[in-house]
Amino acid sequence: MTVSPSVLERIDQFRWRLPRHYKDGMRVDGVIYASEDMLKDILADKALDQVANVAFLPGIVRHSLAMPDIHWGYGFPIGGVAATDVDAGGVISPGGVGFDINCGVRLVRSNLHEEDLRPKLQDLVYALYNNVPAGVGSKGDIKVSEKEERKLLADGAGWVVAHGYGRQDDLEYTEDRGAIKGANPDAVSDRAYERGKRQSGTLGSGNHFLEVQVIDEIYDETLAGVFGLEKGLITLMIHSGSRGLGYQVCDEYARGMIKCLSKYNISVPDRQLACAPVNSDEGKAYLGAMKCAANYAWANRQCLMHLARVTLERVFNLGPKDLGMELIYDVAHNIAKIEKYNIDGKEKTLCVHRKGATRAFPPGHPDLPAKYRKIGQPVIIPGDMGRNSYLLVGSEGAEETFYSTCHGAGRRLSRTAAVLACRGRSIARELQDKGIFVKSSGRETLAEEAPEAYKDINQVVNVVSGSGISKRVCRMKPIGVIKG
Amino acid sequence: MKRYEQFPHTSDIGVHVYGKDLRDLFENAAFAMFDVIADLENISGDMEETIELEAQDQDLLLVAWLDELLYKFFTKGLIFYKFQVELLTECELKAKAFARPVAVNRNRLKTEIKAVTYSGLKIRKSDADYEVEIIFDV
Fold first, then answer.
1. Which of A186-190, A279-283, A363-367, A410-414 has the lowest mean pLDDT?
2. Which residues of chain B neighbour A98 with C-beta distances below 8 Å?
3. A271 and chain B in contact, CB less than 8 A
4. What are phi and psi of A467, to 5 degrees?
5. I want to staple A202 with a disulfide (CB 3.0 to 4.6 A). Which of A80, A133, A309, B34 is the partner?
6. β-bridge mates for residue A345, sequence order
7. What is the ipTM of this complex?
């Protein structure tokens, strides 16, 4: 069901309210972050109805939130944020995290400039394509025994670094230091282990990618300086998740939690919102398994970065010091986290679901690495492969969104519509004309992922920046893209 | 009668599946899923898997059936192309599925389906046939 525009109430230039009375059973209002121009696309599909459905979750506090990259998902909308009060029967929903648990992005800087890279761009893209396994059902070279796999699920990126794929300070610049505490490998089924096997260090397919980018705009010189970034510098961006292991974990717990709906007397309008109280046995088991999948994803992105570093060292015949490929940060954008917030004057423990949304801690937050404590958490926002990506930092204004912000451009066309729109065109050629060299393993991936299938990232970022929930640091444009 | 058609979904893939009876609907749903995953035209093979499942109701049984096939696709590397549902009750299914190893020609693969979702899934009976809409997370 699509929502009629007349239902939405304007709060200010960037905020819209979907009032509780829209649907019987909503416990709180929905609040959508968007500009007026973006509303037409947002209203065109069922995303706003999903914002209303999320408002049914027991224990939800403040609002059912939607970031400006909101679009139609399953259960939660993509771009949905919801926090539940853990000590007041608040629930956790596997559908509020998604199948690709800890799908996320990392941004890596380098000492290279565009003019160093251009002459070798094609070689580099081919080399990355050959060295980084991508595509449907791809398998990695990094083999992990079953016993070691359990350790990997507990230690995440730390396990990978301990085995020689990266440096200790990479962990410093990964959300949760690359391993969220409390992961319970016993809560992960044999089937999930089986699906995760041989996939460590693989990119996956669909919208996952590895991108070579150049910084084309600096918004704040001081902030950019802290990251060692300047105009014309080359960065690398990696977008991937927990692969088959995460999908299987979500699958099994989402199915199991359908039974919890009657057990705990919970009413939700969509089975994909199946949930259980965070403090129940089922809730705890899911959280323990979800953390394992999240750690697997951090391990995976760490492997991918390692493969990319080694490839660049070879192609440019430079050592790690000269190449300067330091990790800026790694963020999760499909995850649930237990965090503390002040709600109506009382400190509450909340379960914050971020489904296609990024954590964005403000300056001074104790969980940030020392280097970033004064400036706020780096937030990495990938765009489509023809336009831009952004580096932002968190700001105090995001307290109202449980320190959450957008996660990407957000799709506006379905895959079928995108393929139809691109019929008879060569997307690779069009991108090459713009100076972007693309290599993809999937047949229709390029058409499905064509720039016009996405909202304009610049509009999305204008909203999070204009509404004060994040601050712009710099903008990148792609020049080399590897797609699954 | 059409076995299925894709409907537009902004982030994922939606299929509208038809069947003259419930068995047919389950077989066509499996066909639709693998038709999204791989190019099934003129495909043949001699692998066979038997699948037996139970679930709380028929909608959940349909998802369980597709999940099971997807799991076998990922872990055994099999592209399924033909399905025979032998027993189907409100909460029980027994079926055979015929497949070919992915490794024979990887170029047949098209789209990675991560999972089958429950979102909006409801088997409906219309005048002469059955239908259901399924959203795959891709």
1. A410-414
2. 137
3. yes
4. -85, 0
5. A133
6. none
7. 0.90
Nearest to A100 among B75, B102, B114 (CB): B114
d(CA B97, CA B95): 7
DSSP A351-393: EEEEES-EE-PPTT-TTS-GGGTTT--EEEE---TTS-EEEEE
Query: In whole angstroms, what is the distance from residue A367 CA to residue A358 CA?
Result: 15
How many domains does chain A contain in total?
Answer: 1
- Is A239 assigned a catalytic role? no
* Partner-chain residue, chosen from A47, A137, A206, that has the shortest CB–CB distance to B74: A137
Q: What is the DSSP string of A100-167?
A: STT-EEEEEEEEEEHHHHGGGHHHHHHHHHHHS--STT---S----HHHHHHHHHHTHHHHHHTTSS-
pLDDT tens for each residue of B75-134: 999 999 999 999 999 999 999 999 999 988 877 888 889 999 999 899 999 888 999 999
Residue type present at position A440: S
- Closest chain B residue by Cα to residue A242: B114
Contacts of A254 in chain B (CB under 8 A): 118
> pLDDT tens digit string along A184-221?
999 999 999 988 876 766 777 667 899 999 999 999 99
Which residues form the domain of A297?
A: 5-483
> In this complex, is the C-beta atom of B134 within 8 Å of any C-beta atom belonging to chain A?
no
Pick the closest to residue B117 from A330, A232, A219, A250 (CA basis).
A250
A255/B contact by beta carbon, under 8 A: yes
Domain B20-113 fold is Archease, Possible Chaperone; Chain: A; domain 1 (3.55.10)
